[in-house]
Amino acid sequence: MTLSTHVLDTAAGRPAAGVLVELFLDDALVASAETDADGRIRQLAETTPGRYRLVFHPPSPFFRRVELEVDLDDGHHHVPLLISPYSCASYRGS
User: Fold this and answer.
1) Rg (CA), the chain
2) What is the rounded CA–CA span in Å between residue 60 and residue 80?
3) Residue 59 reports pLDDT greater than 90
4) 52-76 mean pLDDT
5) No. of H helices and E strands in the chain?
6) 83 in Cβ contact with 58 (< 8 Å)
7) How far apart are the C-alpha atoms of 80 and 15, rounded to whole Å?
8) Local confidence band at 48 (pLDDT 50, 70, 90 cut-offs)
9) End-to-end CA distance of the chain
10) Could you give the CA distance from residue 20 to residue 9 in angstroms, rounded to a whole number?
11) Would you state the CATH architecture of domain 2-90?
12) What is the DSSP letter of 44?
């Protein structure tokens, strides 16, 4: 199982660079990285299927931490985050 992500600052209309993203299995940190200049982490982890917590630390004056619990099976998964001072959203990417 592989996992990638990207963070888009929808208020500024551009990718969010330097955002810390962490991946946990239960309470164990499995992987962490910061988004690049394009707001992407091309491969956050290569690990086994399971239920994980994906934690974003976005550049938002209101949302200090966004946490998603996801069930990841075999294959590649892409989980983006859209963030602004007023809202956040995620979806299962391709």
Assistant:
1) 12
2) 16
3) no
4) 94
5) 0, 10
6) yes
7) 11
8) very high
9) 14
10) 14
11) Sandwich (2.60)
12) E
pLDDT tens for residues 24-43?
A: 999 999 999 999 999 999 99
The reply to whether the predicted model has a pTM over 0.90 is yes
Q: Taking the domains of the chain in order of start, what are their residue ranges?
A: 2-90
Q: Are 2 and 79 in contact (CB under 8 A)?
A: no
Q: Please give the Cα distance from 87 to 94 (Å, whole number).
A: 22
Average pLDDT over residues 13-20: 97
Query: Residue type for 76, please?
Result: H
Tokens representing 49 are: 């299927």
C-alpha distances in angstroms, 7 versus 16, 74, 89?
5, 23, 10
Neighbours of 85 (CB within 10 A): 14
**Plot region of 38 (φ>0 → left; ψ -120 to 50 → alpha; else → beta):** alpha
* Letter string b/e over residues 14-34, b meaning 16 or more CB atoms within 10 A of that residue's CB: ebbeebebbbbbeeeebbebe
Q: Which two tokens stand for residue 82?
A: 């859209």
> Would you give the DSSP letter of residue 73?
-
